[in-house]
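SAMPLE LOG
Freezer: B-3
Tube label: C17
Construct: single chain, 636 aa
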Amino acid sequence: MHRLLCLHVFLCCLSMARPFCPSQCTCVFHGRIDGTGTRSVLCNDPDMSDIPVNVPVDTVKLRVEKTAVRRIPTEAFYYLVELRYLWITYNSITSVDTGSFYNLKVLHELRLDGNMISVFPWESLKEMPRLRTLDLHNNRLTSVDPEAIPYLLNITYLDLSSNKLTTLPSDLMDIWPPLNGVPISSNASQKVVLGLQDNPWFCDCKISKLMEISKMVDTPVILMDLFLTCAAPENLAGVLFQRAELENCVKPSVMTSATKITSTLGSNVLLRCDASGSPTPDLYWTRSDGSSVNNTVQESPGEGINWSIMSLHGVEYKDAGNYSCKAKNVAGTAKATISLTVAGTMSTTTPPLRPSAGTGPTSQATALTPPNDISKSQVTAPTVLPGSLTTLSAGQKPPKLISSNGSQKGLLKEPKQQQEGNGKKFAADEKSKKRDDSRAVKDLEIVEQTADSAVLLWTAGGLLNDAPLTVVYSPYGEDDSKRTVESKAGSGKVLLDGLSPGMRYSVCLVAKVSAAGKDPCIDFYTEDSEQSKLFFIISGIACVLVLPLIALLVYKILALYCNGHSAPSDENELENESYVKFETISMKHRTLTSHPTELWARRPTNESERLLLCSRSSIDSQMTYKSDSSRSEYLC
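STRUCTURE (predicted):
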């Protein structure tokens, strides 16, 4: 009897330990053969006014539908640690607290559609790190807070349709491909479904990215309704996103005066970038590791234009790397990168060394070599970009630039390492330095200019033939884009290639053994390829038109020349043909045997009769005489 009583108590306790289902809900357990399963709870009582608090803790799916619930309180589901699907749809909810979804670490799907929510606590999404589906359609949302963007990175299904949204944060579309820079993949897991239809969109530059995505054919962002339309402004009302043309909306573009800069150790460097776009873009500087740079100056000289300067004072080897200038406005972003290389050595003053017998004074500067990973290339001057200002410390001299008169003052001389042996060459070096002033490269001349190259000629002067020379050339006034060519003094010429057509260039010869500030320079212009093409076209047309005229003129001259030589013979022929053979016609004496019709006889004329005929008039020559005894007249 005692054993039966214990068994009864055990069964009662077991029945009490089973999960309790709320009275206004229906709980269903989906079991498996192995004894495991999932539990779903459906609460759809129209008289329910509050979220149930006694839902079984092992619930995986909770549905609260078509009730009178008007508010989701704080920590309403904190004990449902296994909840993965939460559907609170078609209720009368108007308020959602920031902590309403606290401790829902494994929640995958949240549906709040069909309510009257006007403001959604986007920061509450951080309590649901595994959330992938967020359905807020058919509510009264009027805006999306820009602070919500970080919490939507993992969302793959976002439905904001049938609300009162007029715009979206311009950065919202940047979290999804292709605007986030991630290569487009055919992987279905990277697809993002957006529901944005049935909203009164105000079509301006703020939603230009959304309009751009709607025009794309193959994109990971899939719109539920492709035929999104504008509700405002008035000139775009009813126009599809695909056909709408926005005014004053241009993506930014960034330009830098140089992409690679080499600066000496300890110098000051200014990096500048210019941007244009509409609206006027903002500029940001970042290092290669993504960290921001604060020592910048930014100014907008006019609408749609902005420029920024980043300054580096006393650069060190750690400052070398890539610096990115990023321009951003509501229409998009753009970026340009400048690579900075720090090279050279730093000099420190040391006590003078004791000179040995037969040696001159010793150098008082000890050169510190840079680390092994720093390039040992020739040191160039710190770059100062056009239009920028440099702030120098009190004890620092400003860097010298190449002046317009052709003399080069901007190259810093790298100290020679003179620590070999016991310094026997110091005296000779000092003497050679004294003679450097008389040694100079002269007679600089530019020949064979083309659109992209030129040849520089010079005379070595007093320099040795094997003396090293450095040819430094750059576009006139652009000292930050210098190029160098190594040569020998005895070569006498060097080819300058990679030039741009129709530009003015400055070229200088730097001799390492010459005195500072005495390097000769010369300016020249490259040919304009477009003008050359136009000249050839015009010349060809002129040749086609003029050559036939020249040929015709030559032909006429030759014809006249030939006719001049044949003139005498022609005159003789003309003289012979000017006279006809005259004959006299006289009356015959009638005879009995002669024919009555033959009344006239012909006889040759002599010279006297010919002259007589020529002197008579044409009228007199035609006179006839009826008398047989009259003398004969001459007829032609």
